[in-house]
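Quick check before the chapter quiz. The format below is the same one you will see on the exam, so make sure you can read both the input and the output lines.
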Amino acid sequence: MQGNNYKLGLSDLLDQSLTCYEYFHSLPKSLQEKIKDLDIHSFEDMQEYVANHSRGRYDNI
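Here is the expected output.
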């Protein structure tokens, strides 16, 4: 771990944030799989990806 440059992985994020865990598990399984493939590192990134996905934008974060 190098100073503040360390980022949590998705599994760490889900383990450490009940809000993130509940949000992630409320999503359709297909969207959960896409998020796992991206290995998103923050709740904000996850929300942004889901919002873009629902608008038809499938860009990576």
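If your answer matched, good. Confidence is low (pLDDT under 50) at residues 1-5.
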